[in-house]
Amino acid sequence: MGDLWNVEKIPFVGNEDVTQDLGFHYYQPDKVVAGKKMSEWLRFAVAYWHSFDARLVDPFGSGTAIRPYDHITDPMDLALAKVEYAFEFYQKLGVEYFCFHDRDVAPEGDTLRESNANLDKVVDRIEEYQKDTGIKLLWNTCNLFNNPRFLAGAASSPFAEIFSYSAAQLKHSLEVGKRLGAENYVFWGGREGYENLWNTDMKKEQEHLARFFRMGKDYANEIGFDAQFLIEPKPKEPTTHQYDFDAATTIAFLQTYGLDKDFKLNLEGNHANLAGHTFQHEIRVARDAGMLGSIDANQGDKLIGWDVDQFPVDLYETTSVMWEVLAEGSIGPRGGLNFDSKPRRTSFTEEDLFRAHIAGMDAFAAGLIVAAKMHEDKYIENLVADRYSSFGEGIGKEVGNEKATLATFEEHSLDIPQSELIAATRSDHMETVKVTINNYIVNALASK
Ligand code: XUL
Ligand code: CO
């Protein structure tokens, strides 16, 4: 398996020795849970940008990361070498997918033609490694936010030259996705929003953004790239207001511009929090619209108001996400769990990069085990069915009857005294529900 990384293949160690690191306590890829292998439910992916490019900077400090390829100085040599390091990392971790932006894997040239040539050289190598290892591309995407030319946006830039460049960059990125057999193609519009409404033609910018998405999908159809197309909502950061604010806003945008049949959503935990939602909320909104596509797994920090992209370890949250996934039957037709997460800058060694992924994979494997038990018992299903049961009888049935009018309900309700109305409601004993979920977490994991 190679010795580029100073770590052996990560084994399953069980949870008897809870302090043992560099081993999985819950994740067993071939173990069948709720009718499918864990690896099939979870479809974990490593994010190239965080795991192999990021130096663990924060707004107040430069990078702390120590990586085994730090001695390579030439940018193209480094890009090519990183592919080898990346694939050994995936294999040692036991992950079957990865994700990348075009600019994560190869340096930019002065012109797009030069950048494309650099990218193609690295993609040649990625293709070889995919063939040799069977590791697949969950999704690729275009970096349309890092370079200074995107200072005021890409597809929503007020400058036509920048729109054109973005469209041209997208074209090649789609060609790369087709070549590497990407299962999904993601759009995250980091700068597709505004800083200040006074100088912004919001309608024009959104029309341009919609046109960009439409041309992307049309070109994919033209070249036979049949990936699932995904938009990744985020409310802000780096822009003050991003057009793909959250799942509900993005669904409305897609419907407004007739894109809703061609695009689904890629939901991210920390983005949900920045929009004032839970991760579960975003997934539920997407599910209810039939638009759950894929998941970017990470978590925010209650005490920090920006996108910290922590590796997910909160079992309550991973249980809620996996509960939704089990209810849906899959993450999405071709979706997976991409760790859009980075180790803290204080966990800077190469072993920590493994430890961080193990933590995230184990937290989701544990969430899957717990959620599967909850589904088996139909705990939530029964609770919800019971809560809404009054719509199956009496006046409740009229709600679903198209012939009923306001007068129907007036006739029923006009003379009912307050005491009877209160008697028609019930406590939801929410504290018990929450502690029951805690009990599920403790009990379902105790025997593993
Ligand atoms: C940024 C973010 C991106 C997208 C891909 O917050 O989530 O990394 O996932 O561009
Ligand atoms: Co993301």
TrEMBL record:
Reaction(s) catalysed (UniProt annotation): alpha-D-xylose = alpha-D-xylulofuranose
Which superkingdom, per the lineage? Answer: Bacteria
User: According to the UniProt entry, what is the EC number of this protein?
Assistant: 5.3.1.5
Q: How does it assemble?
A: Homotetramer.
Question: Which named protein is this?
Answer: Xylose isomerase
Q: Which residues cross the membrane?
A: none
One Gene Ontology cellular component annotation held by this UniProt entry: cytoplasm
Q: Does the keyword Isomerase apply?
A: yes
Coiled-coil-forming residues are none
Cofactor dependence: Mg(2+)
Q: Which residues bind Mg(2+) 2?
A: 268, 271, 307, 309
Q: Which lineage do the record's taxonomy fields give for this organism?
A: Bacteria, Bacillati, Actinomycetota, Actinomycetes, Mycobacteriales
Localization, per the record, is: Cytoplasm
For this chain's record, the cofactor binding note is: Binds 2 magnesium ions per subunit.
> InterPro entries recorded for this chain?
Xyl_isomerase-like_sf, Xylose_isom_bac, Xylose_isomerase
Q: Which GO terms describe its biological process?
A: D-xylose metabolic process
Gene behind this protein: xylA
| Entry keywords, A to Z | Carbohydrate metabolism, Cytoplasm, Isomerase, Magnesium, Metal-binding, Xylose metabolism
Q: Which NCBIfam families match?
A: PRK05474.1, xylose_isom_A
Which sites bind Mg(2+) 1?
232, 268, 296, 340
A GO molecular function term, named singly, is: xylose isomerase activity
What does UniProt list as catalytic?
Answer: 101, 104
